[in-house]
């Protein structure tokens, strides 16, 4: 084989190797960036979950100490448990959060409540207070149980 052809093959081989090395380096960078993004997303989700668990415990403590209405606590706890441990909403004693939520979820809150007719608000408050009285003991027991629950 002529020496010029050998040198041409060597040069072409070196160029191909260089192109492949550049491609591997670029893909490695993309892969590392994706891993970092995934790690940050997982850390964010773990932190968010921990904050939700802390909120659950604070609300449960507020129920135990009578600092929050049971209806509001049930709405908030049900919402948080939907993200943290939705399976608990079907189990005793936590089922009461779902039951109370289902009975009062149609009632307006915040701005919608202020915009609603006063007579209708009074009627809904009576209904809400009746639901609270009916489930008061179960809500307190469930609050104590959820405050001590180990979320793993």
Strand and helix layout:
Blueprint: H1 3-64, H2 70-84, H3 95-104, H4 110-115, H5 118-148
Helix pairs in contact: 1-2, 1-5, 2-3, 3-5
What does this structure look like?
This is DUF2489 domain-containing protein. By secondary structure, the chain is an all-alpha fold. It has a domain at 44-148. 82% of the residues lie in helices and 0% in strands. It contains five helices and no strands. It has helices spanning 3-64, 70-84, 95-104, 110-115, 118-148. Helix 3 (95-104) packs antiparallel against helix 5 (118-148). The mean pLDDT is 93.
Shape: elongated
Radius of gyration: 30 Å
Low-confidence stretches: none
On the 0-100 scale, what is the average pLDDT?
93
How would you characterize the largest beta sheet? none
Helix/strand/pairing category: mainly alpha
What is the percentage of strand-forming residues? under 5%
Looking at the chains present, what oligomeric state does this protein adopt?
A: single chain
Q: What is the H-and-E element order?
A: HHHHH
The amount of helix comes to over 70%
Number of strands: 0
User: Given the structure, what is the number of helices?
Assistant: 5
Intertermini distance? 70 Å
Pfam families: DUF2489
InterPro entries: DUF2489
Organism: Marinobacter vinifirmus
Protein name: DUF2489 domain-containing protein
């Amino acid at each position: 084989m002529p020496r010029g052809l050998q040198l041409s093959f060597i040069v072409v081989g070196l160029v191909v190797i260089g192109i492949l090395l550049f491609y591997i380096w670029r893909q490695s960078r993309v892969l590392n960036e994706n891993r970092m993004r995934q790690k940050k997303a997982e850390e964010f989700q773990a932190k968010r979950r921990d904050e939700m668990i802390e909120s659950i415990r604070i609300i449960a403590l507020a129920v135990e100490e009578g600092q929050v209405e049971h209806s509001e606590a049930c709405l908030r706890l049900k919402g948080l448990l939907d993200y943290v441990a939705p399976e608990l909403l079907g189990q005793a004693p936590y089922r009461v959060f779902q039951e109370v939520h289902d009975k009062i979820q149609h009632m307006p809150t915040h701005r919608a409540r202020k915009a609603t007719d006063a007579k209708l608000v009074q009627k809904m408050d009576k209904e809400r207070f009746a639901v609270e009285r009916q489930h008061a003991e179960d809500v307190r027991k469930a609050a104590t149980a959820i405050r001590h629950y180990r979320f793993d």
